[in-house]
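Database export, one record per block. Field names are fixed; values are copied verbatim from the stored entry.
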Amino acid sequence: MPPTHDVVNQVPPLVDHDVADDPALLEGLRREGAAWAEPEVHELGLLAGSERVQEWGRLVNENPPTLRTHDRVGHRIDEVEFHPHWHDLMDVAVSRGLHAAPWRDNRPGAHVARAAKFYVWSQNEAGHTCPISMTYSAVPALRHAPELAAEYEPLLAAPVYDYGLRVPATKNGLIAGMSMTEKQGGSDVRANTTTARPTTEGTYVITGHKWFTSAPMSDVFLTLAQAPAGLSCFLLPRVLPDGTRNRIHLQRLKDKLGNRSNASAEIEYDSAVGWLVGEEGRGVRTIIEMVNNTRLDCVIGSAAGMRYGVVRAAHHAHHRETFGTRLRDHPLMANVLADLAVESEAATTVALRLAGASDRVAAGDEQEAAFRRLGLAVTKYWVCKRAPAHAAEALECLGGNGYVEESGMPRLFRESPLSSIWEGSGNVAALDTLRAMGKQPDSVEAFFAEVELAAGADARLDEAIARVRKQLADLSDIEFRSRRLVESLALVLQGSLLVRHGDQAVADAFCASRLGGDWGIAFGTLPTEVDTRAVLARVWP
């Protein structure tokens, strides 16, 4: 080859490494009562970081699912065809319990262990975690119908991925989906027009058009429809007990910005058969059990994306030289990388704290339930809102190489806005925070009881908590100001957790920037006293 083809000063691929080699993750796993799962998390981390599995993620995104509405002779089949490695990814996720293991495993820390695995595995490929998340989240909602739960929960929680259209009772495991939004309402599900007509057999006939149904290949769906007593929740299997296909038609797949490996469809219920879950007229209250758990996964997924981004940016900076010096050793790049690392650790720490709350809520802890109600709402808003900016900055650390698909960073960037939209956009999350404070004032008390466990440890945190309390004391124009209020609540929660449990250098950098006021708008504007070397020591892969 001519000398112009010599390759120098390029970065080797980051493959065959342990994705779970993450101090904030492992510290949180131990702190929240799931140290017993650490070997399993490392095993999954090594698999996620392997060159073979990274190739699976690339291929399923470059070969997105295809809708097959009819067979060759015109029969309606409504099937989605996936790349074979989609099923490989799903099989690993289900066999490792990412879908619903905590519902069959009563060990303390089961939800934390599952959250850690979800965090590690989704760093390889995020799209397939959508049906995994919905299956996890469907179980507590389904328990509003004990007879249905007794029939379906063992299959939803089974560690077996059994793809194919068959009667649910004949399968070894099930995947669940959720179908709520309609074209005229979106997040305003009370505007839904899909109808549910009761029959003499105890079932309902469901008719309507759903605008956005993710994972339409799922075995069962929880859906909302207008019953005689109002908006209600129903379970619809794709295949009925008699072996016939339920009248659920896939109209088209959405052409999405990101999440391209996962199918999302417009579906038509053409007199489909469904079973009532919960009481008629209380559909939102029933399905909110599912929504709250998928919101937790939005936080975990966003935190996972941040970790993926900052590790790759750090890997690039470690190997790349500019102006005769490794990129990591330039003070300005160190500032950028450390700022990204602080954001990542704050997100990971709060995600695991909320997962720990889920374990304690499952054990009947009412204080934790109150904390989780408000803590999850503010964290869903903030962490998911930060993900796109974080992904953009991490991509920029690679320069032009980061803008090229082969780097993996464009896929991260396209995926990053999803969690802020899924299960309620930023405004919905902000309004949900106000709703929680108004309807469940004990959630405010529980929230501040949590953050004030760090009282006196850092003056900047104490001052920030006092400012938030002052914001809450003024209810004028509260909806107009709600984003700023929710941001402040999220930051003091992250700050308190880092001060109590985090690395000292990371906690100091967080308080000096996010709470102390000496911080710019862009990443890379940490104050000069931050020990960037100590922060970055926790990032190098």
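Remark 1: The CA atoms of residues 391 and 413 lie 5 Å apart.
Remark 2: The domain at 23-281 is CATH 2.40.110.20 (Butyryl-CoA Dehydrogenase, subunit A; domain 2).
End of record.
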